[in-house]
Known about the structure:
The chain is of the alpha/beta class. The protein has helices at residues 31-43, 79-89, 122-131, 152-156, 162-185, 187-194; strands at residues 12-16, 48-49, 54-61, 64-71, 96-102, 110-114, 137-142. It is found in: Cytoplasm.
Amino acid sequence: MEHDLPGAGEQVLLVGLGNPGPRYSGNRHNVGFLVLDELAARIGGKFKGHKGGADVLEGRVAGRKTVLAKPRSFMNLSGGPVAGTARFYKVDPSAIVVVHDELDVDFGALKLKFGGGDNGHNGLRSITKSLGTKDYYRVRFGVGRPPGRMDPADYVLKDFGTVERKELALNIDRCADAVEELLGKGLTSAQNTYHAG
């Protein structure tokens, strides 16, 4: 079934997932924050604390009225701040876009989808539980699988490797472009552009 964001006049809540504080800032788990920082730089705004439990920035992304939000809770408690912010801004779950790291996608690759499971991602699990629905958009930023027998939970809490860091800025930029295309032209267009063959 085809899904697309509500009409252009409707506000979108764009959520980047990560863990707060400098200790985690370069972790794989924090790519959602990094992508939102890039989009904030593009629209020339700064995040401010909000009573919903997230740092927010109101602006226009791809011409669409958008609230950018970075939950101030830890990743596995993201749902409360996301639901609280959505309620405050009166945004329906079908107009929420979550940017997050994804183990089952190769490093730097992007996958966009609407709805579906959480695939073991604690941030998504918390959001789905708090919203009471799986029906929101996900922009999945590939971080790849951990090497050898490393625990995936440890892997996502490590910084990107030396080789990955060389490409990271470019990949963050590309992910921000994908978010803009999703908001401006819809899911199918963004999938056609950013899903690798």
